Amino acid sequence: MAELFLELFSEEIPARMQARAADDLVRLLTEALAPLSPGGARGFYGPRRIALVAEVASGVAASSSAERGPRANAPEQALAGFLRKHGASKEQLRQEGDFWVLEKASAAVSAAELIAAALPGLLRRFPWPKSMRWGGTSNFTWVRPLRRIVCLLDGAVVPFALAEGADDDGHGLASSNLTEGHRFHAPGAVAVSSCADWQAQLRARKVLTDAGERRRVIAAAVAEAAAARGARVVDDPGLLDEVAGLVEWPVVLTGRIDDAYMDLPAEVMQVSMRVNQRYFALRTPDGAAAPFFAFVANIEAADGGTAIVAGNERVLRARFADARHFWDLDRKALLESRIPQLDHVTFHAKLGSQGERMRRIANLAEHIAPLVGAGPALARRAAELAKADLLTGMVGEFPELQGVMGGYYARHDNEDGFVADAIRDHYAPKGAGEAVPTAPVTVAVALADKLDQLVGFFAIGEKPTGSGDPYALRRAALGIIRTIRENGLRLHLLPLIEAAGHDLHHRGVHPVPAQDILDFLAERLRVQLRAEGARHDVLAAVFAAQGEQGADDDIVRLLARTEAVASLLGTEDGANLLTAYRRAANILRIEEKKDGPHTAAVDPALLAAAEEAALAHALDHAAPAIDARLAAEDYGAAMSAMSALRAPLDAFFDKVTVNAPEPELRRNRLQLLSRVRATMDRVADFSKIEG
Predict the structure, then answer these.
(1) Most distant pair of Cα atoms in the chain: their distance
(2) Exposure string for 226-236, b = 16+ CB within 10 A, e = fewer
(3) pLDDT band at 549, cuts 50/70/90?
(4) Do residues 188 and 41 lie in contact, with contact meaning Cβ atoms separated by under 8 Å?
(5) Which among 199, 162, 155 is positioned nearest to 181, based on CA atoms?
(6) Three-state SS for 132?
(7) Which letter does DSSP use for residue 173 in this model?
(8) φ, ψ for residue 39 (rounded to 5)?
């Protein structure tokens, strides 16, 4: 195998596009060079380059094959189409029986030839989200002007050019072994002979080629700088990834925040620094904003960074002055005074204004409040104020601060502390790493907000699809699930879903059946369990079990029952019971196609064999015991009652012929198996258990 190395060196690539571009390069080149069996492909990316290294075969050996074509008496058009498809002429055909046969011979092709032939077209169709043209007579586009192409096969240049005909000069770009180092520290070309040499040469010229290494260097240096000032860094993986895509040679520096701005909310300071300047926020040990910030330069300054720090401090003062303006201006009006304006802000064309949505959430939060131990009046007040900060200047400037600013402004207006906290936290959890609300008033408003979101968008046909979820409904569902699970809330979701849809009717919007929303929540719960390594198939089986009240809509109870069934299946009795259930279900599936269903009561007089009588007796005891234990939510005892069926079921299948020659015995035995299936299905639909 030979080493193929490719580097595409350009002007600065937006950080958000780099990782995807490297992945696309690996994918496209692997597909294009499939005849060379590429392996071990690895992509690199950074501010001014994407690159790839892979092992490829030295070439493709000569080969020959025969392709059968149309019949000899087929119309000329059919034969012409066949020849056109294969790029062949009639002289290359021979007749074999009733058919034309094309003998195809392929000459040996070297890896260099294949690579040189594939790359110009691959680069011309490269899927950048946005591309640009620049000077010259070329139609070739790239995310930013492409300056150099390194293409090496075991150290030798694979020659090709991007020019496409006389009218397209391809910007004069052709492959070579020349790359460039750091724009300021090591400008100019340098020759490389392999991927390892490329990495070493660039490191010596102040370029770290590996994005993961840049990220680690930045994280460690920022943490060290913060610790030196008695502070810690606010965790921000997204910012870390972005900054790693902005610099080739990271140099971490710290600046000081002017005392005049230290009374701004810590979240305002953090978001302003992050959004506007890509600075890292620091915190004191007690969680307050530290009077310092960290940032990453792309150069080792001769003065140690003094001038760079001073310039960034000056820029930050201007940014914080803007934030101060919004902070002071917003507090001049009561949050409550902004509520009427919500009627003039569209939430969604089919779902009405933010004011209408606020009233729906307020009604639902008031309904949920007593179920979670919250005061209905406080929950309603919090819901009425929860969206008012959308009309503030600060949230207009920094939408990321929705809720957070409302909490600050509510406290400034002397609203109840529980109300202010609920406004602040009602969007939570926004992601997997964020804590769920725990205060009862906040829980009521947070659940109401997410239920309204789910029910509303489902009602107008905006369900998530495999390719997209523009209204973040999966995240809303997961937020509901986590809030219920982590607080141990005993809630019946079906009536809450129905209540969430009640206020949509006056708009002419008709909610989907509540069961559809419950099914969606159950599916998200199943996905969550799978991610946790739990038995998600058991959850599906338990959820599918239909009792007198229908599917279980109490997540806490559903999970407790799931855990009990999973524990039973982990025992020898449970595994054997599942095997017996499947055997019974298979027999019933086959026989019910003939003359089913076989759901009538078992006739005790026809229990001829001792084993079938024993099974009937066991069912007589187990069925009511299981029902009683399930009703009492004593799931361990319910599983014990069901496991008592294992021995009589094993004996039944060992000694009794279900399809007896006597029709009445056969029918009665099938009815007995149907009773077994129905009894176990009261606990879970065991047909959904995997493995």
Answers:
(1) 101
(2) beeeebebbee
(3) very low
(4) no
(5) 199
(6) strand
(7) -
(8) -145, 160
Measure the CA–CA gap between 95 and 560, rounded to whole angstroms.
Answer: 73
The answer to whether the beta carbons of residues 128 and 11 sit under 8 Å apart is no
**Whole-number Å distance between alpha carbons of 247 and 682:** 61
Q: Which residues pair with 52 in a beta bridge?
A: 6, 43
Nearest-angstrom CA–CA distance, 166 and 448: 65
Average pLDDT of the residues of the chain: 94
The span from the CA of 538 to the CA of 282, in Å, is: 45
Location of structure tokens 């020759």: 191
Tokens standing for residue 279: 């600075």
Q: How far apart are CA 512 and CA 493, in angstroms?
A: 15
How many angstroms separate the CA atoms of 124 and 373, rounded?
62
**Is the separation of the CB atoms in 208 and 15 below 8 Å?**
no
The 8-class DSSP code of residue 280 comes to: E
User: Could you give the CA distance from residue 676 to residue 670 in angstroms, rounded to a whole number?
Assistant: 10
Pick from 38, 40, 41, 48: nearest CA to 17: 48
According to DSSP, residue 191 is labeled: E
What percentage of residues in the chain have a pLDDT greater than 90?
84
Position 548 pLDDT exceeds 70: no
Coil, helix or strand for 378?
A: helix
Closest CA to 392 of 452, 346, 345, 451: 345
- Tell me the three state secondary structure of residue 446: helix
The bridge status of strand 146-153 relative to strand 156-157 is antiparallel
Tokens 């992945």 belong to: 23
Residue found under tokens 């240096």: 221
Alpha carbon distance 22, 376 (integer Å): 53
Alpha-carbon gap, residue 175 to 347, rounded angstroms: 53
β-bridge pairing 146-153 and 280-283: unpaired
**Residue ranges of E strands in 257-402:** 280-283, 289-297, 346-348, 352-353
Is the predicted pLDDT of residue 649 greater than 90, yes or no? yes
Beta strands 280-283; 232-233: pairing state? antiparallel
The predicted structure's pLDDT at residue 432? 84
Which of 57, 32, 60 is closest to 153 using CA atoms?
Answer: 57
Average pLDDT over residues 335-359: 97
Q: In sequence order, which ranges of 331-371 are alpha helices (DSSP H)?
A: 354-368
CA dist 156 → 25, 32, 41, 61, 489 (Å): 21, 20, 19, 21, 67
Q: What is the pLDDT of residues 653-670, one digit of tens each?
A: 999 999 999 999 999 999
* Joined tokens for residue 589: 């599936």
Instruction: State how far the Cα of 180 lies from the Cα of 204, in Å rounded to an integer.
Output: 11
Q: For 307-329, what is each residue's pLDDT tens digit?
A: 999 999 999 999 999 999 999 99
Supply φ then ψ for residue 141, to 5 degrees: -125, 155
Q: Could you give phi then psi for residue 162, rounded to 5 degrees?
A: -90, -5
Torsion angle of C-alpha atoms 268, 271, 275, 281, degrees rounded to 10: 120
